[in-house]
Amino acid sequence: MTILRNLLLYIVMLGVIVTLHELGHLLAAKIFGVYCKEFSFGFGPKILAYQGKETEYCLRALPLGGFVAMAGDSDNDLETKVETDDLPPERTLTGIAKWKRIIIMMAGIMMNILLAIVIYSLMILSTGTYATSTKPVITTVMEDSPALSAGLKEGDIIIKAEFENGLSYKPDTYLELINFLDTYDGNGPWILTVERQGESLKLEVTPKYYEDQQRYMVGIGFSNQSVEAVKVNIFNCWIYGFQFAMFILKLTFSSLMTLFRGQNLDSLAGPIGIYSTVSQTASLGMSYYLQLIAMVSINVGIVNALPLPIFDGGRVLLLIIEAIIGRPLSEKAQNLIMSISLGLLLLLFVFVMYNDISKIIGG
């Protein structure tokens, strides 16, 4: 019964994230008058279908993605080919202005970010208060602490924190710093860049694990005035939801940069790893499950922004190149770029599946 529940929660999470992503493309396409033959969640054989005024809305057998079949877009020809012979050019993706095409491509990513903002905003609203904070200015350095040994001083402003695995973050506030430091995996020192009397200093400090606090710390303190709880209502919760979503976005982007440097690769997770995370999160309660949906949605948005033609970001990049050189790339060049992108994606998929299975066997 538990497995069935977790599987259902997994499918619901994917369904919400993918459907809203594709809905972004659909709405933007319709705003600009592009003909959309089909809006689908999943691939493979159709299970359910509803014919709208112009677009057919479908549920397909394999819930591993989704698509919008737009006129002038050949990406989904294997599933649904859209004939354009009887359509005026302005109703096709290739017949509209490039800036409109860019908006259509980016709309899915924006919907993923918007979903996270809405979830975080409503969760903050449900608590009734939200903690805001000032800059991460050290006001206390404990005696006989790692911080004192490393040379940290009162008045230092922490402008960057970095872990041995390459993960780094530039905090704007004390709470952002604390939230980032809480992701520390216990390996290696922290590299803290501080601003002291107008100068920038880089200091290495190795945290100690405190059993009573159940966390790693270095022995620095911040003023009680660093944090202020503000009352939240239906009007201002969106501001705080946006702020928190941007924090998660920056942290996720920082994690992605470590992967490109060949660090922290074991943190990559594929479908199996995400299902495992859903299973663990579901046991903690609905709020944790909703936070997971928001985080995965942000991850999906960032991945889709990558400059690979198989993703939305790559298609935008090709449009920008086309605008610069004044003509589309040759079909041969486009096919070569797409083949390389697909090959890289398949290698990544094999790697994350290996990661997922290794963690299961090792765990």
List keywords for this structure.
2 domains; alpha+beta; 12 strands; two-stranded antiparallel ribbon; 9 helices; Pdz3 Domain; 363 residues; 4-stranded antiparallel sheet
The percentage helix is: 40-55%
Rg calculated over all Cα atoms: 24 Å
Instruction: Write down the secondary-structure element order.
Output: HEEHEEHEEHEEEEEEHHHHH
* Silhouette: elongated
Distance between the termini: 22 Å
Q: Which blocks of ≥5 consecutive residues have pLDDT under 50?
A: none
Walk across the major sheet and give the strand order.
Answer: 6-5-7-8
**Main sheet overview:** 4 strands, antiparallel
The secondary-structure class comes to alpha+beta
Work out the count of structural domains: 2
Mean pLDDT, nearest integer? 86
> Strand fraction band?
15-25%
Number of strands: 12
Oligomer: single chain
Number of separate helices: 9
Give an overview of the whole structure.
The chain has 363 residues and is α+β, with helices and mostly antiparallel strands. The chain has two domains: 97-128 and 234-363, no CATH class; 130-231, Pdz3 Domain, CATH 2.30.42. Helices cover 48% and strands 20% of the residues. It is built from nine helices and twelve strands. The chain has helices at 2-31, 98-127, 146-150, 174-181, 237-260, 271-282, 286-304, 312-325, 331-362; strands at 36-51, 56-70, 129-133, 140-141, 157-162, 168-169, 190-196, 199-205, 208-210, 215-217, 220-221, 227-231. The strands form five sheets. The protein has a four-stranded antiparallel beta sheet with strand order 6-5-7-8. Strands 1-2 form a two-stranded antiparallel ribbon. The radius of gyration is 24 Å and the shape is elongated. The protein starts with a helix and ends with a helix. The relative contact order is 0.11.
